[in-house]
Amino acid sequence: MSLLSVRGIVKEFPGVRALDGVDLDVEPGEVHCLLGQNGAGKSTLIKVLSGAHSPDAGELSWNGERVELGSPVDALRLGIATMYQELDLVPGLSVADNIFLGHERARFGFTRIAQAREEAARLMARLGHPGIRPSTEVGKLSAAGQQLVSMARALAHDARLLVMDEPTAALAGEEVDNLFRIVGELTADGVAVVYISHRLEELRRIGHRVTVLKDGRTVGTGLDARTTPTADLVALMAGRKVETVFGPRHDGHARPETALEVANLTRAGEFEDVSFTVHAGEVVGIAGLVGSGRSELVETIFGARKADRGTVTVRGKPLGPGVRAAVRAGIGLAPEERKSQGLLLDLPVVHNVTLASLGRYAKLGFTERARELDDAGASLRRLDLRPADPRRIVRTLSGGNQQKAVLARWLVRGCRVLLLDEPTRGVDVGARAELYRLIDELAATGVAIVLVSSEIPEVLGLSDRVLVLREGRVLADRRSAGLTETEVLDVILEGSAA
Ligand SMILES: Nc1ncnc2c1ncn2[C@@H]1O[C@H](COP(=O)(O)OP(=O)(O)OP(=O)(O)O)[C@@H](O)[C@H]1O
Ligand SMILES: [Mg+2]
Question: Which ligand approaches the C-alpha of residue 213 most closely?
Answer without folding.
Answer: 1
